[in-house]
Amino acid sequence: MSDLKYKIIIGLEIHVQLCTKTKMFCGCALEFAAEPNSRVCPVCLGMPGVLPVMNKKAFEYSVLAALALNCEIASFTKWDRKSYYYPDLPKNYQISQYDLPFSEKGFIEIPLESGESKRIRITRAHLEEDAGKNLHTAGNFSQVDLNRAGTPLLEIVTEPDMNSADEVKALAVELQRIVRYLGVSEADMQKGHMRFEPNINLIITKDGTEYKTPIAEVKNLNSFRALERSIEYEAQRQLDEFLDTGKVMQMGNKSTRGWDDANQMTVLQREKEEAHDYRYFPDPDLLPVEMNDAWLDEIKSRLCELPLQKQIRYVTDYKLSDYDAHVLTAERSTAEFFEQAVSATIEQAFIFGGDPKKICNIITQAGLKLAHEQNCTLSELGFTPENVARLARMVEDGYVNASAANTILEEMTKTDKDPQTIAKDMNLIQKSDAGELEAIVDQVLADNPKAVEDVKSGGKKAKKAQGFLLGQVIQKSKGQANPKIVSQILTKKLS
Amino acid sequence: MSPKIDKAQAKKVAKLSRLDLTENEIEEFSAQLNAVLEYVEKMNELNTDDVQPLAHCLPVSNCFREDIVKESLGTEKTLANAPQTDNEFFKVPKILDDSAAT
């Protein structure tokens, strides 16, 4: 058995669809699932004599995203024509950016399983227009829908700094959170708003010698799952191929592969990277863009605290678990709601407010479930952050138990009443009055002499029996007895 | 002076542009292309060391439009000039290699 080790090397190209109202160079609406070929005009059809004009918002959104990715923003950028022939490309060229992209040399921090983060370098980010969509029907023709043609796409290219499918997934998820936080893309995978193309190869060390396998590029992956699976599949395939044939990376033996979702495998599309001859040249219809300090500062002012920063801050400042912090920061609106509830607590601590962990529990265990059911954000559910803070305090004080809190929160979506009033109205206030509870305990003990006997005699049955008695008391109180206090009373009486 | 473009290059450019040219046309156009390139070659006589490449022939930049929806053509007009349609889509010969280059 020879000594063999290998490392996976992955770089990523990502296309992110920007959420402007209109296309990149014309006023056609961007609308998912519109009637085929209805959102099309002479500009995006590539009719002779038309003049494309750049959408300012698309450019500013791109700059904002590039700033969040720590990129340098070019003071001068221009548009180029990339020539190729394909039915979904009506002009026979795509407007893109070649040698002077609007941004380059950035990085993104991605969270790792270990709780650490890893910095992945960004080579460049540029703007380009999307093509239309081809549909392949059963007959001997294909259908073309040009509604998507001209949609602004931000293309982000990373350095080959990732070494596992997990890291690639982490980057994809992090990028999704970032562009959503910035409000520059809906980043809805199901609508194809994010598409990934990983470049994968292996560095294999065998008997002390290092070999590199030929790079494979997997095209057009539009789910996190396909992205992960295709990388895992490719790593194994390349290892097998190397062991089988000894084939190593050479000039021109990069291959292009597609993902076959039904069979969960990559399929060869093009063996040899034909020297693509796109014949790029500056687009004479479009004027260059010059960035100045004032404009850049204005765009910078739209940046917000980014999700990973927030996540780390929640763990440090609020002592939340990494998991909870991740759930709270997944959507900006959720994070902001949480922060408002926490600051309400801090500012008005004398009156009300639970600690951040309790607020987090209410949001993650009940709030997000309600939001999901009603298909809206947390803040759209109708309750205020202040009232959620109040409710958290009620749980913390043992005034209501956790399951009652969930019921109260649900009620808060329907009425403007504060949680205290709802708890009273719905009879959900936990009984913590020792005298009152003792009476119930006494009765339960009298009704269950066998269990009392088991507890008193000790041994393996004791614990189970005491749990049974506790359950009986809670039941008798119609779920309103504070279990902590009942437990104390039980222990005292049975010892 | 040796030709800037030989026939093989002219054929390649024709192929890239999806032009189906006869041998006579290849001959004719490579001669024309050579003449054009020789003419442009004159520029090399100038010293351009301190000249920035030109991205656009007008000294203008930052021409934008606002992100405001304008009416589109609608499906019927969009498809009006298409050689083949099914009234919803453009119909094209079946695409076998689905690898759009974006």
**Straight-line distance between termini of chain A:** 66 Å
The SSE order of chain B reads: HHEHE
What general outline of chain B do the C-alpha atoms trace? flat
Low-confidence stretches of chain B: none
**Helix percentage range of chain B:** 25-40%
Biggest β-sheet description of chain A: 10 strands, mixed
User: Largest sheet of chain B, if any?
Assistant: none
- Average per-residue pLDDT of chain A, rounded, comes to 90
Task: Explain what the structure shows.
The complex is a heterodimer of chains A (495) and B (102). Chain A is α+β, with helices and mostly antiparallel strands and 495 residues long. Chain A folds into three domains: 297 residues, no CATH class; 119 residues, no CATH class; 61 residues, Arc Repressor Mutant, subunit A (Orthogonal Bundle), CATH 1.10.10. Chain A is built from 16 helices and 18 strands. In chain A, strand 15 and strand 16 form a beta hairpin. The longest helix of chain A has 22 residues. Helix content of chain B is 32%, strand content 6%. Chain B has 102 residues and is mainly alpha-helical. Chain B has a domain of 38 residues. Chain B is built from three helices and two strands; from the N terminus they run ααβαβ. The model of chain B has no long low-confidence stretch (mean pLDDT 87). Chains A and B meet through strand 2, helix 2, strand 9, strand 10 and strand 18 of A and strand 1 and strand 2 of B.
Primary descriptors:
heterodimer, A: 495 residues, alpha+beta, Arc Repressor Mutant, subunit A, 3 domains, ten-stranded mixed beta sheet, three-stranded antiparallel beta sheet, 16 helices, B: 102 residues, mainly alpha, flat
